[in-house]
Amino acid sequence: MTVDAVAIAAHPDDVELMIGGTIAKLTDRGKSVAIIDLTRGELGSRGTPETRAAEAAAAAEALGVCERINLDLGDGRLENTHENRALVITHLRRLRPSIVMTQYWEDLHPDHAATGDLVKDIMYPIGFEKFPADGQPYRPNEFLFAMAHFDFDPSFIVDVTGYWDRKQQAIHCYKSQLHDPDSTGPATNIARPDFIQRIEARARHFGTMILTDYGEPFLVRRPVPVDDPVDHYAAFHRF
C-alpha cells in the first residue's frame, strides 16, 4: 500500500498534539495518511503500553488514518542509529509517501529530538540504491518538521480551523494521559488541567498569523516552491 503522507513521532499522542488538525484535513480531502510511532511510550508516568496502544488506535480512527504502526524502539532510549534509520527507511519505502511529517529536531524531550534528527538524516539515504534497507529506493517530495516544545519561524502554516474539533477528539482518546480530577496518578505536563488550553492557545497564535482561527506551523529546510504566486495567493485574503 502506498500513501500520500506519513507522520512519524516518538510516542503515541505526539502526532495528534502537534499536527492532528492537518492530518484530519488531509484525510477529509481524500488523502491517505499513515502514522509511525517509534516507541510504545512505556516510560510514561500514566497508563500502560497496552492502554496507550488502544488509545492510539482510537485516535487514528478519529483522524481517518489508514495505517498506524509502532516500531517499539525504546521509550527514553530512542537513538538516531544506523539500524533505526534503516528500519524507518524500510517502512517509508513500502509506504512511499509524497510527504513525511515529523518532530522538529530541537526539543526538550530527548526522544523528540532524536526523532527529528533521525528523519532529517534519512532525507538522502532513503534514495540510495546501495543503502542496506529493504524496498526500492525513492525520495519523498518533502520532509516537514512540526512544533512541540520549542518555537521556530514557520515555513508555512496550515489552516486547521475547520478541523479543530477532530483534533480535539483524537487528543481526548488518550484518557490515561489527560487531566482527570479523580485520578491518583502522578502529576505530568499533559495531565495539567490547563494543558488543552495551552495547546489551543498556540494554535490560535499561529492561526492569527494567517488571519484564521487555528493554525499548525511547519518548518522545511529549503525554500518552499511556488509555481504561480498570483494563483497561490488568490485563495487567501490577508489584508
Task: Provide key terms for this protein.
single chain; 239 residues; alpha/beta; Rossmann fold; 7-stranded mixed sheet; 7 helices; 14% strand; globular
Chart the SSEs and their pairings.
Elements: E1 5-9, H1 14-28, E2 33-37, H2 49-63, E3 67-70, H3 82-95, E4 99-103, H4 110-120, E5 142-146, E6 156-159, H5 164-171, H6 195-209, E7 215-219, H7 229-234
Parallel strand pairs: 1-2, 1-4, 2-3, 4-5
Antiparallel strand pairs: 5-7, 6-7
Helix pairs in contact: 1-5, 2-5
Largest sheet: 7 strands, mixed
**What is the terminal separation in angstroms?**
43 Å
Count every beta strand, where a strand is a DSSP E run of 2 or more residues. 7
- Which CATH class applies here? Alpha Beta
CATH superfamily: LmbE-like
Number of domains: 1
Q: Assign the structural class, choosing from mainly alpha, mainly beta, alpha/beta, alpha+beta, or little secondary structure.
A: alpha/beta
User: Oligomer, anyone?
Assistant: single chain
Number of helices: 7
TL;DR of this structure?
The mean pLDDT is 93. 38% of the residues are buried. Helix content is 35%, strand content 14%.
